[in-house]
Amino acid sequence: MTEISQQQLDEIYAFAVQLGKDAGQMLMDAARRRMQGNGATTSVDYVEKENSVDLVTKTDNDVEAFIHNAVSKKYPDHKFIGEETYSAGASRDYLVDAAPTWIVDPLDGTVNFTHLFPMFCVSIAFAIDGVPVIGVINAPFLHQTFSSCRGKGAWLNETQRLPLIQNPVPALPANAPSGCTFACEWGKDRRDTPEGNMVRKIDSFMNMAAERKGRGGKGGMVHGVRSLGSATMDLAYTAMGSIDIWWEGGCWEWDVAAGIAILEEAGGLITTANPPADFETADIPPVKLGSRLYLAIRPAGDTPDETARQSQGRVVREVWKRVQELSYSRPGA
Amino acid sequence: MTEISQQQLDEIYAFAVQLGKDAGQMLMDAARRRMQGNGATTSVDYVEKENSVDLVTKTDNDVEAFIHNAVSKKYPDHKFIGEETYSAGASRDYLVDAAPTWIVDPLDGTVNFTHLFPMFCVSIAFAIDGVPVIGVINAPFLHQTFSSCRGKGAWLNETQRLPLIQNPVPALPANAPSGCTFACEWGKDRRDTPEGNMVRKIDSFMNMAAERKGRGGKGGMVHGVRSLGSATMDLAYTAMGSIDIWWEGGCWEWDVAAGIAILEEAGGLITTANPPADFETADIPPVKLGSRLYLAIRPAGDTPDETARQSQGRVVREVWKRVQELSYSRPGA
């Protein structure tokens, strides 16, 4: 176990929050420069990666360099994993180990950013022993900064405790997934084949949405289906309690590390997207940060019949009952 | 034609913007009261209408009464149509005629509001001769107020002209719907039958999303699929240019009237969701406010090869090619 004192952790937290504010300002400055016009005829300059929905903008690189530089100067002994440096490197292995590590996505919701759709943000996590213990997410277009440090609570704009409703925290619906808001993303894998993730995802979404008697009894009649185009924002909104269930495959540790820290500190649960064979009775495993498969349930209140954790487990099983296995590979995770 | 002078219209616009601010404040006050806790065990008090996803809260009624009262006092000769008064009445007819008319949704995104998911807003439109000429939308959780008056431009927070990118306004992608952000909603009709709207919608969404060679050649490979749970916010974001295409059936005139005013003033196009038989050559009809069927395209820039309007028409046909006919009825519209 890495030894970091509470005082050191407090200092790292304050530093991370300020980093998030500064990096968010850089994102918003870049957005404003585009609004003011620069003669570009269609969209921001970008380089296509795998296909037209996987973009990397100059802004990603600039913001990651800014964060990397600030961290290296202040904490030269800490490890740093950022989306852009990872993508530029040769290895596709999972690189998070026990060392004190910063896990950063300089711009989550890149497609949103290129369209100036407001759901984009910077995501900064600090992990010890492979577990994110500090998370900062700043969505500057929305004036929303989310932050947490282990033992200190999770916060919106440093003043509003998460989840938003506290006295008491609302219980999860007895007939979940009915009554629940369900967040999910269509993703970049758009193959039109039964083994493709898009087809598996949409089949699962339809089970969650359909009337209870529909879909061969798998209908979940959720309260609403939402897609924001940002895994990080999905997790932040789950920590708020605004999203009850988030189910997703395909994103990476920098997309979720800060969100996991904030969600868990707020009292939420996160586990794997893929249902185990014995999903009705299996233990609910803790999330594997690099697994690319995530299922999050919002913070919940106890009831006379159920603890919060029991109710979250119940909702996890109700989701597992309705979703297909997704196929995303990850060496070393 | 109803005679309203430019001076009168300016005065009505200023009044509508102030109404939007005040009503948005009421929504946010109600949200804050819930955050501060009131002993409720699960959620805000609400009365179920058709099913568990069709809610009407006390907040809707209070805010509509506030707006109705203010309008009646200031403009006793104007007609008023609000979601809650309409729903409480006996008629299901389309009630908008040539008279100067306020068309109001006190709380759009009611499901979002009950979960404190930030995409909720008040929507206020003023129509003459059946056409919305003033629109005000206030989403207080997001600090976003959208407004427009015929001939005066469309605005975010009264200072940022819409669309967000102006110099020049970006052209629509040449290979649209690829490169486009596509907004769509799952809606309340969750019947699991081929003639049900959910099944027709999801089939259409999948055509828009799949790889180009997929779905029997109908694959559209859109840049991203987004669902916000609010028709009003979808339209406002299309006016911003953040959403390229919004396709929807099932909502009502109070959900879209202000958004249509703002979108059209920003330079966007809005027509019907349902493809005509000869969709490749048919004239693109102007939107029918009460039709419950909408297809909106964002404001666009001209190119050497195409006017903005030609490119919007091209994108409309690319959508019509890929979507199923939706079935929503409306007497008198």
Automatic annotation (TrEMBL), chains A, B:
Belongs to the inositol monophosphatase superfamily. Its EC number is 3.1.3.25. Pathway: Polyol metabolism; myo-inositol biosynthesis; myo-inositol from D-glucose 6-phosphate: step 2/2. Keywords: Hydrolase, Magnesium, Metal-binding, Quinate metabolism. GO terms for biological process: inositol metabolic process; phosphatidylinositol phosphate biosynthetic process; signal transduction. InterPro entries: IMPase (IPR033942), Inositol_monoP_metal-BS (IPR020583), Inositol_monophosphatase-like (IPR000760), Inositol_monophosphatase_CS (IPR020550). GO terms for molecular function: inositol monophosphate 1-phosphatase activity; metal ion binding. Pfam families: Inositol_P (PF00459). It comes from Emericellopsis atlantica. This is Inositol-1-monophosphatase. Its cofactor is Mg(2+). Mg(2+) binds at E83, D105, L107, D108, D255. It catalyses: a myo-inositol phosphate + H2O = myo-inositol + phosphate.
